[in-house]
């Protein structure tokens, strides 16, 4: 089985790459700290005797051969990038647990039929470069590599430039890597498993998610002289739009999620009525039809709210990731692995997006969740218990072994 | 009288220092473009035979001697810094018209009893370094120079560093400069003169203004997994606070102005519920008692709004500039100068802050307004008519001559 102490030590060691004062990690995709943790992973691959491949999106694959050279690899993985105020587990856990599973296979001498691989996907978070799950998206054909390369961060650096800068633009064309099946282990990032006291979530799918870019355009004016009736205040209009979005989301039930996470105002001066606002909207629901209805309602109402403030609004959808239903056989392998290793388990739907959501389009896929404290994620205080961490890694290992036998 | 064409040419020439594609100016205090326009003014001083002094806040004074060496100077002036999306007239007009008045006095051979000076005040706008009217504030003792030097811009550069960097930290201690009386010419920046078809405003005072720094503190969380009921969304709370401020301001009548011009969100990621928001509030009213009452109402209600969203709020007053009433004799000199030069005029209260507001605390002071198109200011489209520009400059010249005779 998994060497628990060494997995926990790897989590502690890599947390130093971008570690924050509050005990979290700030390791944005393709930054200096991302390079450090990638280099670290490369060193581990060599120590393990694995073969490292980097593809043209910077995805890292570590390969261990199987007994049958004709079979494509079974792949485990997740991501090593984080949010600006990210925790030590989101993504990282899945990669390091996969590494510990490779080590366990090597150590045991157990010979798998399929090759087994670990993947570290580039820019899963989508925080520096939108959208999320970018490189599994290119891998599976959801976007083109050219689209991804051209994406700019807030400073105008493109993804392509940043990839070159850290030296991780690999030779293998992204998407050419064969995959027999894909398993991703992750913290739940929500409150369900913890609340119910269950260790393993057998993830049956991922809810639908859409991202939007909203722009409000009013008129800059003097804060001291401009009467209220003459104002076309883009920020005040944005405030009305935000509240309206929240109300609409709530009216579609507790499963609806609507979040404005980014807002930029121009010119951004204390004594100037704002002329321009740009803001993001992250919208989610488990049901494709409901998310479409929520979007439609928001479009109509937001335009009306803005108009009432004398402001024009544009709302552009920049990402659409429909609801995903994982492969029933793979999900069943996860349930059995949990049962075999003596862990409590239940089915669960993911509220967060994962590279597995895109991989599910091209190969049999499933995910494994473990609880995290207070359901908190995308927060420096994110926490998972050592016992759950090791339990989840053993479920991953057994799911892969089951897939090999399948 | 004033040489109109040369004044208009100066306005056009200096508009190139920080000129924008939309025909406005972006010349933030103590930036490279501010240095350029200061150097230009120094060259004009030399050409005029005036003596240039720079004080320890970077204020530039150009001195022409009078016939009585015992008398302190009559001072005209305004500022050459702009908003990020500023126009070609705000502040600039007052400085360049003052320059044209000095030239007119030189050319005419008319010998004033008092010395006459022109001043360019540093950082009147308060956009890069808060608050506004910073250097006239230090000059008149409203803040200490140490406070001003320590003020940071959004990048963490202090005012003191920026002043050194552009080479405008002068030897004369700020505030030691004698002033007999102060006159400032400015565009109205509001709609009144234009609407009434009047050329000259005899400014009787400046309304009260207060600036606040608001901070909302909630909890970062995952946008996809965190149920609405568990969220403590600092940006959604900020939206509620902004709307509430607008409603309170409106309830205190049409003379109340409340503006949120700056908002920053942390961590600022599309898929993270915002944990922290910082925003500015600019509050104004002609009456000191009313502005105090509005502030009090906002404090109570804003805390309640934030609490309802599970967010804590702090609201710090960072600037308090009480209502100012200018010197009746000086105001009367402006009315007479308007009458003498054949211009229509009326009394008016300034909605914008001006260096004259602080100067009024230490010496007899008044201001002169001319109309601006659509009352629009702090906007690249800011515009004043050539006829009004020259008329205002002649009123300034005659007011100074009246003060000399007084
Ligand atoms: N797992 C995770 O947090 N991924 C980021 C994409 C998302 O926002 O759901
Ligand atoms: N005149 C002017 O726009 N000054 C800036 C200070 C203020 O906000 O009123």
TrEMBL record, chains A, B:
<keyword id="KW-0378">Hydrolase</keyword>
<dbReference type="InterPro" id="IPR036264">
    <property type="entry name" value="Bact_exopeptidase_dim_dom"/>
</dbReference>
<dbReference type="InterPro" id="IPR002933">
    <property type="entry name" value="Peptidase_M20"/>
</dbReference>
<feature type="binding site">
    <location>
        <position position="125"/>
    </location>
    <ligand>
        <name>Zn(2+) 2</name>
    </ligand>
</feature>
<feature type="binding site">
    <location>
        <position position="79"/>
    </location>
    <ligand>
        <name>Zn(2+) 1</name>
    </ligand>
</feature>
<feature type="domain" description="Peptidase M20 dimerisation">
    <location>
        <begin position="209"/>
        <end position="307"/>
    </location>
</feature>
<comment type="similarity">
    <text>Belongs to the peptidase M20 family.</text>
</comment>
<dbReference type="GO" id="GO:0046872">
    <property type="term" value="F:metal ion binding"/>
</dbReference>
<feature type="binding site">
    <location>
        <position position="186"/>
    </location>
    <ligand>
        <name>Zn(2+) 1</name>
    </ligand>
</feature>
<dbReference type="Pfam" id="PF01546">
    <property type="entry name" value="Peptidase_M20"/>
</dbReference>
<dbReference type="GO" id="GO:0016813">
    <property type="term" value="F:hydrolase activity, acting on carbon-nitrogen (but not peptide) bonds, in linear amidines"/>
</dbReference>
<keyword id="KW-0862">Zinc</keyword>
<dbReference type="Pfam" id="PF07687">
    <property type="entry name" value="M20_dimer"/>
</dbReference>
<feature type="binding site">
    <location>
        <position position="378"/>
    </location>
    <ligand>
        <name>Zn(2+) 2</name>
    </ligand>
</feature>
<keyword id="KW-0479">Metal-binding</keyword>
<dbReference type="InterPro" id="IPR011650">
    <property type="entry name" value="Peptidase_M20_dimer"/>
</dbReference>
<feature type="binding site">
    <location>
        <position position="90"/>
    </location>
    <ligand>
        <name>Zn(2+) 2</name>
    </ligand>
</feature>
<feature type="binding site">
    <location>
        <position position="90"/>
    </location>
    <ligand>
        <name>Zn(2+) 1</name>
    </ligand>
</feature>
<protein>
    <submittedName>
        <fullName>N-carbamyl-L-amino acid amidohydrolase</fullName>
    </submittedName>
</protein>
<dbReference type="InterPro" id="IPR010158">
    <property type="entry name" value="Amidase_Cbmase"/>
</dbReference>
